[in-house]
Write a structure and sequence with these properties.
Blueprint: E1 9-10, E2 13-21, E3 26-32, E4 37-45, H1 49-63, E5 73-79, E6 82-88, H2 107-126, E7 139-141, E8 147-149, H3 152-161, H4 175-178, H5 185-201, H6 211-220, H7 235-244, H8 256-270, H9 279-286, H10 297-305, E9 308-312, E10 317-319, E11 327-333, E12 336-339, E13 345-349, E14 354-355, H11 357-362, E15 369-372, E16 376-382, H12 383-386, H13 391-409
Antiparallel strand pairs: 1-2, 2-3, 3-4, 4-6, 5-6, 7-8, 9-16, 10-15, 11-14, 11-16, 12-13, 12-15
């Protein structure tokens, strides 16, 4: 076991070849004799029992992610102090090959790839999982060009085990990572913004002669305008990238749904389509929310078509205290504060939370105002419009609303 070249198997997996070195340790191509498929295995030598326990906790958390644009984790295990993660093997290479000036993708093809990455990362965001190391080499491509985000587990685990060091690949790190501050999904948004810049221009957004210079540039400088390298890019792309890589999390995108919506507008414009908000995008994101888990795509489409998608800027009032409204407001991106008539914040609502259920059900005046804490997207669902839907849709809607209300008022009584 001391010599990697002598490693013939890990667990039930037969080692075929060493692929390289990853964030955790060695990476192998292996064969699963039970399922009859190739797998990738990433390993790490963890000396302490505490490290091994953290390894399994983190790997289990990430292993629950199930999305077509995220590399699937099949198995975790340990063999002679060698901890390992077995995952989906993808043969199409990485996004790096399209991040050079001589091998750039068309603008619309690049945006389509980024939209799929937004899908996967928004799903992870809803599960409260942060990647921490989004970069072209961690985005794998299938033979058909489908992007899949890799190293979710290893990025989290590697960072946990070496807290004393600044982790992440320098050119894609967010300012808060560089400063050692708490990490949120906005960190992954910043990193993806850097990937967008590179995929569309062939140039690394933040570069330097050494690590120190790169980190200083991330904190204090802006990359060259992307149209300097690719003049045919629409102005809106430059604006989107600027917002994605804003050094201040307050002015950065707060959700991959917001980023995806803006990119979808650009894509439709490039194809000569409408600039209106994409219903298909909203359907895809809404389906990932717990409230809509029992709905099929067609039912969600009918519900959303009878509802209203609201985009609200930071600080704007969505609905005011005392208003009579028959609608319930569901947050699908960003966050909003419920504020009393004395401007005291009662609570904050995040993705999947709702407001106005009593007015929706009984037509009573609202007891509190709803104000966007950050740029947010909400679904406004009217009870009158719901009553016009098929009985089967109404049944699921009211069942899920009852469950969500009960869970809110008695969280310990629902499993």
């Amino acid at each position: 076991m001391n010599n990697d070249n002598e490693l013939e198997s890990i667990g039930r997996y037969q080692i075929k070849e060493r692929l390289g070195k990853g964030a955790m340790g060695e990476v192998y191509l292996a064969w699963d004799p039970y399922i009859k498929r190739n797998v990738a295995i990433k390993t790490s030598m963890l000396s302490s029992s505490e490290d091994r326990e953290k390894f399994f906790i983190e790997a289990q958390s990430v292993g629950r992610l199930n999305h077509p644009n995220i590399i699937a984790i099949y198995d975790i295990g340990e063999q002679n102090n060698l901890s390992y993660i077995t995952m989906e093997h993808v043969e199409g290479g990485t996004l790096e090959k399209y991040c050079t000036p001589k091998n750039l993708l068309s603008i619309d093809k690049a945006i389509q790839i980024i939209l799929k990455l937004c899908d996967g990362l928004y799903y992870a965001q809803l599960q409260n999982v942060i990647h921490r190391d989004i970069k072209p080499s961690n985005i794998l491509l299938t033979k058909l060009g489908m992007p899949k985000i890799s190293d979710f587990g290893t990025a989290v685990i590697a960072q946990e085990f070496e807290k004393s060091k600044i982790k992440g690949t320098p050119s894609y790190m967010s300012p808060e990572q560089v400063k050692g501050k708490d990490i949120t999904s906005e960190t992954d948004i910043f990193s993806l913004g850097c990937v967008i810049y590179e995929l569309l221009s062939g140039k690394v957004a933040f570069r330097g002669r050494n690590r120190s210079e790169i980190l200083n540039n991330i904190l204090n400088k802006q990359p060259a305008p992307i149209k300097k390298y690719r003049p045919e890019l629409p102005d809106s792309i430059e604006q989107i990238i600027e917002k994605a890589i804003s050094k201040d999390t307050i002015t950065r995108y707060h959700s991959f749904l917001e980023l995806s919506d803006d990119l979808s507008v650009v894509l439709r414009h490039l194809k000569g389509g409408s600039k209106t908000s994409s219903e298909s995008q909203h359907i895809r994101f809404v389906r990932q929310m717990d409230f809509f888990k029992d709905f099929d795509r067609g039912q969600i489409q009918k519900l959303l078509s009878s509802s209203k998608i609201i985009t609200v800027s930071t600080g704007n009032v969505i609905i005011s205290d005392g208003d009579i409204d028959d609608s319930i407001y569901l947050v699908i991106s960003g966050s909003a504060a419920v504020v009393d008539r004395h401007d005291n914040i009662i609570k904050s609502l995040n993705q999947g939370d709702f407001f106005g259920e009593m007015s929706f059900l009984f037509g009573t005046p609202l007891t509190g105002s709803l104000i966007a804490e950050v740029d947010s997207i909400l679904v406004k669902i009217s009870s009158v419009e719901v009553s016009k839907l098929l009985d089967s849709i109404q049944l699921i809607f009211y069942k899920n609303l009852s469950y969500a209300m009960g869970k809110r008022f008695n969280p310990g009584g629902f499993k």
